């Protein structure tokens, strides 16, 4: 059955939420062998190399001469916002606080808020209801102690700032011209971000990563790079096809996939609360898409 472009975008965002759910695992592993900026730009290096391989047929380097100054500025801003500020602060927050807490903060519908402000997307009471319902599902899964939910430290604040910058970069996807396809936009952003973070590493007085290159770490970097490459492509593709309000709601499925990964990889059997939370998220996402 031939899918519409919007349905393809929805499937891309569902896949994106699954990729998001796996990111915290790579960060914790790589932190053992590499410094803060090192692990981020190494992930991006692997992602960039893999991107040149996977996007090979869709890359047209002659377009680089045709990109206008304003478009370059937008690409640079999106790269800095998504990776230098968003991903870097997200990585730091993962190292400072619980992954579940960061996942909960990341589920705040920031893309819906920013998208509504920038594009004046129509928002209805039902859409607000389903956004809040999905957030309730995330709460049921991620928060173990409700008495300390608003007792935030540095890690939690960094997670909130990171989601603001990441969401801003994502929402601005629609501002890109039709000159570049999603593969080209993704590759340019990853390359720019790698350069930025490599320079940031020197400003942070980190040495070159001469140690820590065990076969296991190389494998982790490869998988993390592949995930980053897929993540930025799905982001550009999904938010090109789907409204930011609906997309924001779909991305709450990150917690749903986190429960599944916990069961598959760590044999963490979900309890009643996690099961109910997953059902609530799925119900909210399905109903939101029916509205669309």
The main β sheet shows up as:
none
Order of helices and strands: HHHHHHHHHHHH
Number of strands: 0
The best one-word shape is globular
Q: Structural class of the helices, strands and pairings?
A: mainly alpha
Radius of gyration: 19 Å
| Beta-strand content estimate | under 5%
Helix content: over 70%
Low-confidence stretches: none
| Overall pLDDT | 84
Count of runs of 4 or more consecutive helical residues: 12
How many separate structural domains? Answer: 1
User: How far from one another are the termini?
Assistant: 20 Å
Any overview of this molecule?
The protein is an all-alpha fold and 292 residues long. It has one domain. The protein has twelve helices and no strands. Helix 4 runs parallel beside helix 7. The mean pLDDT is 84.
Considering the chains and any ligands shown, give keywords for the structure:
mainly alpha, single chain, 292 residues
What's the quick description here?
The chain is mostly helical and 292 residues long.
Question: How are the elements arranged and paired?
Answer:
Layout: H1 5-30, H2 36-54, H3 69-96, H4 99-106, H5 110-119, H6 125-142, H7 154-171, H8 182-203, H9 215-241, H10 244-250, H11 253-266, H12 272-291
